[in-house]
Amino acid sequence: MMRVMIADDEAPAREKLEHWLAEQPDVTVVGSVKDGLSAAQCIEQRRPQVAFLDVQMPTLSGLQVAAQLDPSSAPLIVFVTAFDQHALKAFDLNAVDYLLKPYDRERFARTVQRVRERLQSYQPGARAVAMGRAQWPASERLLVPDGERLRLIETASIEWLQADDNYVHVHTAGSRYLLRRTLHDLLFQLGEQRFMRIHRSTAVNIGCIAALAPLFKGDYEVHLHNGRVLRLSRRYRDMLFARMVW
Fold this sequence. Notes:
Layout: E1 2-7, H1 11-22, E2 27-33, H2 36-46, E3 50-54, H3 62-67, E4 76-81, H4 84-91, E5 98-100, H5 105-118, H6 126-135, E6 141-146, E7 149-154, E8 158-164, E9 167-172, E10 176-179, H7 183-190, E11 195-199, E12 202-205, E13 209-214, E14 220-224, E15 229-232, H8 234-243
């Protein structure tokens, strides 16, 4: 069975999709929500294979939800929009499918068939994640797990990041969060304006650096304003020096 999630802030639009999807013998709807944060929560907890995401939603748009996902585990995403300009901007490259409201049964059927075909391909959700990030090249907010739920934090509040295999510890002034992401992918999402890798397993918010102290063989200590001391390896030294404002 194809596990599908629906996210749309308009109840009639959700009900229409629920009804038409229920008629498909190989589809089961595992969630139906009305905002972007709930959509991300549903994807995290219920792991649908396919997500129908409205482009315009409260808290996070459909494209912003896609931008927050891990490309290696993201569901195949069908964007739903009532605005032609969004369709033209986001879908001309035919990276993923979309439904332009108001759509009829024939258009819906073509989408479902395309979904079936694309589920056979490798990492079907990666293209939608790339599209979302192209629209928001540097995320100002990050979804992080907080107990059984997800919450949005400001990326400016993140002081440093520490990789742990396929997980990343996100350190803020008062909290630490564990994301199931690679450091490389998370840095790509956050953008290069604020964060920079200083070690194979460590990245730092440049604005949180208070001082640098030389060690030996080209390594440095990075002293943060909060008192934390991190290691800057010789490999990343020159790149950090070029970014620092002295």
